Amino acid sequence: MDPNDIVGKAKEDASLPKATMTKIIKEMLPPDVRVARDTQDLLIDCCVEFINLVSSESNEVCSREDRKTIAPEHVLKALEVLGFGEYIEDVYAAYEQHKLETMDPVRGGKCGNVREMTEEEAVAEQQRMFAEARARMNGGAATVTKPPEVDPCLETNS
């Protein structure tokens, strides 16, 4: 791999693909704004440092719960601890969207004849999941009622 494709000081350092990061930086700015190469490198280094910071705190949260695997709720709690609480709902929504986009239809569903949620059902489910995540992050202070589970294989597509 070309060393210019990865930003990082040493092989053991975490790094991100430079071309991908440059594309993200350019997409975030107006088309008439140019970014110097050393500024791009600095932004990429900041991204790497942010990922290291969130990963480290997520690991601390996970360890305090005597867990061995970092779960999404550990990352959300880490964001809160680090002072990024205002981003938690957006991060959680992005995570849920990622799960939907990457779900293996063969393993994800119990049958191939599942009806899709209406927009109202999806919004209600999203709000329930947000409330559940907030409750977990607040030490389970609030109880969230989950709608009764319905066997999707028994539903009809009418």
Summarize the structure.
The chain is mainly α and 158 residues long. It has helices at 18-28, 37-64, 72-81, 88-102, 105-108, 119-137, and strands spanning 6-7, 16-17. Strand 1 and strand 2 (16-17) form a beta hairpin.
- The chain-level structural class is mainly alpha
Poorly predicted segments:
1-11, 109-113, 146-158
Strand element count: 2
Report the end-to-end length measured between terminal Cα atoms.
Answer: 54 Å
N to C succession of SSEs: EEHHHHHH
Q: Which sheet architecture does the biggest sheet show?
A: 2 strands, antiparallel
The average pLDDT is 79
Please state roughly what percent of the residues sit in beta strands, choosing from under 5%, 5-15%, 15-25%, 25-35%, 35-45% or over 45%. Answer: under 5%
Give the count of helical stretches: 6
Q: Output the radius of gyration.
A: 20 Å
Describe the structure.
The protein is an all-alpha fold and 158 residues long. It has helices at 18-28, 37-64, 72-81, 88-102, 105-108, 119-137, and strands at residues 6-7, 16-17. Strands 1-2 form a two-stranded antiparallel ribbon. Strand 1 and strand 2 form a beta hairpin. The radius of gyration is 20 Å and the shape is globular. It starts with 5 loop residues before the first strand and ends in a 21-residue tail after the last helix.
Q: What would the keywords be for this entry?
A:
globular, two-stranded antiparallel ribbon, disordered C terminus, mainly alpha, 6 helices, 158 residues
Write the layout of secondary structure elements.
Blueprint: E1 6-7, E2 16-17, H1 18-28, H2 37-64, H3 72-81, H4 88-102, H5 105-108, H6 119-137
Antiparallel strand pairs: 1-2
